[in-house]
# Entry
Amino acid sequence: MKIAFVGGGNMAAALIAGLAGKLTAGANIHVIDPNPAALEKLHAQFGVSVAPQVAPADAALTGSDVIVLAVKPQSMREVAALLLPVLQQGGAPLILSIAAGIRGADLSRWLGGYGAIVRCMPNTPALIGLGITGMVATAGVSAGQKAAADAILKAVGSTVWLEDEAQIDPVTAVSGSGPAYVFYFIEAMQEAAAELGLTPEQGKQLALATFVGAAQLAARSDEPVALLRERVTSKGGTTYAALTSMEQSGVKGAIVEAVKAAARRGKEMGDELGAAD
# Structure
């Protein structure tokens, strides 16, 4: 499989690390980015070919089976304009977009009605191979292309396929933004540990190990997380006191509303970024 990346930032680098020498040889991966330092690093690490800009004369780009768009959402329309002449040469690659807020219909419109697009929403644990990506394909994506997209994102974690692109906004709110919620809770636990007299290092070690262990326990158990929570909570005990305090403070409701706010903002971004000229 020949894969071109437009954009060589952190998420692109994570994907390349998962792909090179595994799904395809590093020599079959091409990276386009205006940052020479990023290109030099990727070439040295993985043996990929590189270029500073999108160009129709770039044989590695025009010969790609998959083009991964890993640029900032605000740059996508400009990148699409540069890609249009490449696609008009007739290679028919799969376009795989990992940019937040860019709807498939808008990207297709910017690409002259191009139909083979898979929109993806990965998250930052992909940087260590533990990500999860929500994915949705447009009608013009073949079964083979869908399988290729799935294999590429599975190089950095697991995948969830969606039937309706509108579900991407909830996915963004839950898993795309989700690592920040976890980090926020870890910060709070570390702060509490310090106020209770533990050292910063002790608080960090205890909080991180608790999150990792609890997440693994939930992942490996067939039982609902509510039941796992109940088993830790003896009425009148320490955990009961903590959870009662959280309930009285409306913590669960606040988290639910926060995730909904993220989903609303995802939809707003789609409206803003996709607005016609």
